[in-house]
Amino acid sequence: MIGLAYCDRAGRIYYDEGLEPLADGGIVRPALRDELIPAPPGSVEMILPGRRALTTHGALRGKYALAAMLPAGYTRLLVPAYEKEANAPTLPLFGYTFACVIDDELYVAAMKTDESEDWQPRYFADGELEALLERRTSADPGNRVLAQVALCSREYGCFTAQNVFLERGEAALPVSPKCNARCVGCISEQEPETGLASPQTRIAFETTADELARIGIHHLERVEDGIVSFGQGCEGEPLLRSIVIASAIEKIRAARANGTINLNTNGSMTRGLERCIDAGLQAVRVSLNSFRPHAYAAYYRPIGYALDDVLASIRLAVKRGLRVSLNLLTHPGVTDDAEEIAAMTAFLREVPVTMIQTRTLNIDPEWYFDAVGRPREPLGMRTAIAAIRGARVAVGNFTHTH
Ligand code: SF4
User: Fold this and answer.
1) What ligand 1 atom has the least distance to the C-alpha of 185?
2) Which is the CATH superfamily of the domain at 119-396?
3) pLDDT in tens, 56-102
């Protein structure tokens, strides 16, 4: 029996196995048993303020919907269903996942889609991280990028920023203070009228190729199969600064032949990407929420480009032999709409990318549905993931070197 997990107004959690909860997969419905797994270690429960829990018997007064936030390595299959009270606030930018109780244990609607030691939760002894940051930044005091990733390590707990100081795995190289998109759920800059704080503050300066290259070279000197990645959560669109990135790549490759040079981008500027590839870029991860122009435009609100430019960049990177991943911002009811799956598989059959990272989109579900529309025919997130694999494309959540 799938039972209800809910909260009282104070956020205390309760289980009622006599009530069957409803979930939202674009259409409100009961969850299927095989869409549910025990909540994995690292899951975080959250009350949804002003949102009454919804069951097969209707909405419950004084009982608020509970959601879970999944740890890295999992893909969300359903969002919670609820009835919104008047004046309920817009929810902050988190990945709200349907949660329920089975045999007195918390379950979530999710699927394990990747494994990586480097992305397990991290715990630092008192002062340990600060000492690492201090030792490294004092060795290169004028490097503003180093100061930025130190801030991101300390304030946001960013793994790729911390890797710069831990000298392991994938290291962050943020580049651009500006962006040519206005994503509804942007994590580095929210428009004032949303009333929401962005989880990170966007960098405020234009980095130099020297600053970037110094960090890249230092990292690859110490991490044989390391990754250095331009394009991070704390910035805008890196391709707006492709000349600087190309110059940084040349400086890094003049000093180091090992490791992988990667770029995370919205893929908007194909000529800029070509410039980086000519300089030695080896891998690229292109972010998108949809393969349908209207749903893409409704979320990204692009300035001076369109989905076709993004798809052209992906084609170029595959043609040039790069390791190409797509950072698919997934949301039940959008990613698994029949039309979306058809558009996605048609593209993947034509353009064989290496991997799709099924990223849980962090946004208030109703805000997102208002922006891109509810589905005509949601087929279920597992069907969407099976379609990716059916197109012989790997599914994962992290950038791997091999
Ligand atoms: S592309 Fe990135 S930086 Fe630009 S608006 Fe979207 S989320 Fe923000």
Assistant:
1) 7
2) Aldolase class I (3.20.20.70)
3) 999 999 999 999 999 989 999 999 999 999 989 999 999 999 999 99
Judged against a pLDDT cut of 90, whether residue 374 lies above it is answered with yes
117-176 pLDDT, tens digit per residue, is 676 667 888 899 999 999 999 999 999 999 999 999 999 999 999 999 999 999 999 999
User: Nearest CA to 326 among 18, 127, 334, 335?
Assistant: 335
Instruction: Choose which residue among 183, 234, 301 to substitute to test ligand 1 binding: the one with the highest number of ligand atoms within 8 A of its C-beta.
Output: 183
Confidence of residue 209 (pLDDT cuts 50, 70, 90): very high
List the structure tokens of 109.
């609607």
Interacting residues of 69 by C-beta distance below 8 A, sequence separation 6+: 43, 44, 46, 94, 95, 96, 97
Residue 273 vs residues 223, 267, 290, 309: alpha-carbon distances, Å: 26, 8, 21, 11
* Interatomic CA distance for residues 96 and 110, integer angstroms: 11
**Domain limits, the chain:** 4-112, 119-396
Q: Compute the distance between CA of residue 341 and CA of residue 134 in angstroms, rounded to an integer.
A: 48
